[in-house]
Design a protein that fits this description.
single chain, alpha/beta, Pdz3 Domain, 2-enoyl-CoA Hydratase, Chain A, domain 1, 3 domains, seven-stranded mixed sheet, six-stranded mixed sheet
Length: 412
């Protein structure tokens, strides 16, 4: 559930570099009072309590000092590392579930998760109220077939308690070869129970499209994620194909889309806005704003309804918020997740990485949605026992009204 940027790539305007001089300078500040004979150019140093401060820890502290979206105190971070004895413990003192450390294995697995297929159980997880929580199961996966639901708390994985467990480590425990079993301890509605799930190859359907009704010419696109180098191109191909079929209105389904790369959300939003329209305001810790606008190129002008729910998060909220703010689309469903923060992934020198919250964002109209979410224009809840998709039905009804089409008569 992230609006992500990756430092050191060609992504726009945010690139991090580390220098040995900067690291040494920071180290001198950190170990003030330590013996002068220490080798400051080495991989690490001893503080005066005898705790090793490794180069890896120094890199992370330097990055936090340079890029974290709030001011941090270097001494507090060092003391937290000494007290907790781990990088994860140090980062936990920030009380920011999105700023987290990934060892080389976890970092590699996170990169694998961005691909279109992997072996696992097919659920999206996040931290909610300090608990590891299922955001959504992917349709047609072992997780969905096992009856896992959005909002379920995962309290154990193969018997290991998840309290204070890093998300990436939790993912690594649930991942595994196709055909193997994993046992989850679930808390739902005050009750706890175990679910045994057989892992399978998970194929993430990034973009799905169809014409819902050939007579009414209402197109439908389901966008599952904002990861993947070809996601934007595949999305535009779907739009062009529907237009060739005579599409008069579009329903964009962002339910259970927990986000991904910020730039992809901005790119797709720009397909429906006029050149120069604001999409999102990125806010630094000093309050400065960097506004991202719709650029030149092909713009699709079509009546729109966007489906959202409690698992619509991050980059999905950037997209849905921009379309709502700019009066391009009506939102149908329930209030979105409410994640108005941007993370940047910084690879470290030993093959590990750290994800750091570097900015917060405001919607095109300047709204802060962090912990608040986006309220849809038309609220429609989807009951757990619903036998039909009442949210989609309402979206079709709203679209027909927008197109001045007569809704289909109900059988009596």
């Amino acid at each position: 559930m992230n609006s992500l940027r990756v430092a050191g790539t060609t992504r726009r305007w945010l690139v991090a570099t580390l220098s040995m001089a900067a690291l040494i300078g920071l180290l001198v500040a950190l170990v003030a009072g330590a013996p002068r004979s220490q080798d400051l150019a080495g991989a690490g140093a001893q503080d005066r309590d005898g705790v090793k401060i490794s180069r890896q820890v120094l890199e992370i502290i330097f990055l936090l000092k340079s890029y974290y979206y709030k001011e941090v105190n270097t001494t507090d971070l060092v003391n937290a590392y000494i007290e907790k004895g781990s990088i994860a413990g140090m980062l936990a003192t920030l009380k920011d579930p999105y700023t987290r450390y990934m060892d080389p294995k976890a970092y590699k697995e996170m990169q694998e998760n961005m691909k279109a297929s992997f072996d696992g159980i097919g659920i999206s997880i996040g931290m909610k109220d300090d608990h590891l929580t299922i955001i959504a199961p992917i349709e047609g996966t072992p997780g969905e077939r096992a009856g896992l639901k959005p909002g379920d708390r995962i309290i154990t994985i193969n018997g290991k308690p998840t309290r204070d467990m890093a998300q990436d480590y939790a993912v690594s425990l649930m991942r595994g070869p196709k055909g193997t079993e994993v046992t989850l301890g679930i808390e739902r509605g005050g009750k706890t129970f175990e679910v045994k799930i057989i892992r399978d190859t998970i194929k993430v359907p990034q973009v799905e499209s169809k014409m819902l009704d050939k007579q009414d010419k209402i197109g439908y696109i389901y966008l599952a994620t904002f990861f993947g180098d070809d996601t934007s191109a595949r999305f535009e191909e779907a739009l062009v194909r529907l237009q060739k079929e005579g599409m008069r209105g579009l329903i964009l389904d962002l339910r259970y889309n927990t986000g991904g790369e910020l730039d992809l959300g901005v790119d797709i939003a720009g397909k429906f806005l006029s050149s120069g329209d604001p999409i999102v305001h990125i806010v630094g810790r000093d309050g400065s704003r960097h506004t991202l606008y719709a650029g030149p190129g092909r713009h699709f002008k079509v009546p729109m309804v966007v489906l959202v729910n409690e698992a619509t998060a991050s980059a999905s909220e950037i997209l849905s918020g921009a379309l709502q703010d700019m009066k391009v689309a009506k939102l149908v469903g329930v209030k979105t997740f409410g994640k108005g923060l941007v993370q940047t992934i910084f690879p470290l020198s030993d093959g590990s990485a750290v994800s750091i919250t570097t900015h917060r964002y405001l919607t095109a109209a300047g709204r802060s949605i962090n912990h608040k979410g986006i309220e849809p224009d038309i609220v429609v809840k989807l009951p757990e026992d619903a036998k039909k998709d009442v949210q989609l039905d309402k979206a079709i009804e709203v679209m027909k009204d927008m197109l001045k089409l007569k809704p289909a008569e109900k059988a009596g």
